[in-house]
Amino acid sequence: MFSRIKEDISVVFDRDPAARHTLEIITTYPGVHAIIMHRISHALSNRGLKWLARVLSNIARLFTGIEIHPAAVIGRRFFIDHGMGIVIGETAEIGDDCSLYHGVTLGGTSWTPGKRHPTLGNNVVVGAGAKILGPIMINDGARIGSNAVVVKEVPANTTVVGVPAREVIKSDMTQKNREKIANKMGFDAYGATQDMSDPVAKTVNRMLDHIHKMDERMDKMCIQMKSLGGEFDFEPLPGLKDAELSECNPEDHKDKHKTPHSTDKKE
Questions:
Q1: How far is CA 198 from the centre of its chain?
Q2: 1-8 long-range contacts, CB within 8 A, separation 24+
Q3: Phi and psi torsions of 67, nearest 5°
Q4: Burial, 57: exposed, middle or buried (Cβ in 10 Å; 0-12, 13-18, 19+)?
Q5: Segments of the chain with pLDDT less than 50
Q6: pLDDT for the residue numbered 182
Q7: Bridge partners, residue 160, by sequence
Q8: Which CATH number fits domain 2-167: 3.30.70.100, 2.160.10.10, 3.40.50.300, 1.10.1130.10?
Q9: d(Cα 163, Cα 151) in Å, to the nearest integer?
Q10: Sheet of 159-161: strands edge to edge?
Q11: 159-161/166-167 β-pairing
């Protein structure tokens, strides 16, 4: 227990750039306080002192704002950043090297005794405000986006976002194609954007995918026509970086719409 507490303190230096020295961590980090109290209450619960363990966990919640049931199983090098509002249920299990941010809930969806709370594998990161509900598995290396609501199993090394949470599909080949087309067009504002939940980025990325397919088909058509004796004058595509909207003088715009019969009141 004490060796794990020592690891919980030392890991803060790796995951929080604001940490300066050990004394500061021990005295001012509520996440570390909650973990230390849980290690003790969990040991008491395993020895049959369940009432005392619950009392200790409630004291920890009073001072830290973090509620961890004494029966919850937490692995090594567990890190809680900020921590306010975190709830970890009785049958929750957390692997090694996991990180939780404030407002996270590892909750249950049933009143039936037994396994009711989620299981987190190793090296899992759960963003602020995320809710993981039910006896589901969050596999190794998974990333849960902020405010996501997870109700299904998450595969290993996968990022999920949204309500309900859905997998963020990342294709290195597709991304390379987008960057290639964006550079060819002279446009790169969204060319390197990953497929996250931004609807504008998704729309532009889909346009780049469509242009890429059209470009491929045109190249194939040109090759076939050239093989039949056709001649083509290939010119580079004009870039979009230097494109500007022409400025319009408001007075000119006003004069353009002035009717021939309109006269000044003074006349």
A1: 12
A2: 1/39, 1/40, 1/43, 4/39, 4/76, 5/35, 5/36, 5/39, 7/76, 7/77, 8/32, 8/35, 8/36, 8/39, 8/76, 8/77, 8/78, 8/79
A3: -110, 115
A4: buried
A5: 188-193, 195, 243, 245, 247-248, 250, 253-254, 256-267
A6: 62
A7: 144, 167
A8: 2.160.10.10
A9: 10
A10: 79-81, 99-101, 125-126, 143-144, 159-161, 166-167
A11: antiparallel
Dig out the tokens for 212 from the structure: 């890429």
Domain coordinates in residue numbering, the chain: 2-167, 172-234
Amino acid at residue number 118: P
Buried b (16+ CB within 10 A) or exposed e, 25-45: beeebbbbbbbbbbbbbbebb
Give the C-alpha separation, 210 to 198, whole Å. Answer: 19
Q: Give the contacts of 172 (CB within 8 A, at least 6 positions apart).
A: none
Give residue 187's pLDDT.
52
Number of other residues whose CB lies within 10 A of the CB of residue 258: 8
Q: How far apart are alpha carbons 183 and 239 in whole angstroms? A: 9
Residue 158, token pair as written in the block: 């996968």
